[in-house]
Amino acid sequence: MDTAPFLAYLDGRHVRWQLTLDQCVDNAGDDPRARLLAVFDALRAWAASSPGFRSCALVNAMVELADPQHPARSVAAAHKRALRARMLELAEATGTPDPGLLVDQLLLVYEGAIAGHAVGSVEKAEDKAHLTARRLIAAATPYPMDTFWVGPEPTSW
């Protein structure tokens, strides 16, 4: 199998995701908590803009390619590490005492939302992940919650 086209596809997916993420972070304004939450704005935008959105191409590649030495696995892992690094940078700006822990918690919610959406086990998984992330960020940061908690919580899904 010629891996070059597949690696190019994965890189393209990452570049498109990065553009979506950058736009959402820019649109979030100056509040560092909103900028971190923008990762979940990007997830919602990504899912809404991708007809037939089923899952994460990077995770799918890692699952499908059993050979741990396959070059696509290292490409996918590098892209996931880049997301974590970006989130860590955003989390550090929030003033949370443990930005690494907050990012790990948010990544679990993020990846869980993708999986829940993919298998259909969680209705409106991206919206619920967004709300969960907002709660985690609000609880982990030293600012008054009401300055970040804009808008009512959904009463029904």
Question: How would you describe this structure to a colleague?
Answer:
The radius of gyration is 16 Å and the shape is globular. The protein has 157 residues and is an all-alpha fold. 69% of the residues lie in helices and 0% in strands.
Residue share in helices? 55-70%
Q: What's the N-to-C terminus distance?
A: 44 Å
Number of strands: 0
Shape: globular
- Report the major sheet: none
Number of helices: 6
Structural class: mainly alpha
What letter string, H or E per element, gives the SSE order?
A: HHHHHH
Mean pLDDT: 83
Radius of gyration: 16 Å
As a percent range, the share of strand residues is under 5%
List low-pLDDT spans.
none
For this entry, give a set of tags.
157 residues, mainly alpha, 6 helices, 69% helix, globular
Quick recap of the structure?
With 157 residues, this protein is mainly α.
Secondary-structure blueprint:
Layout lengths: L3 H24 L4 H18 L7 H8 L6 H22 L6 H21 L5 H16 L17
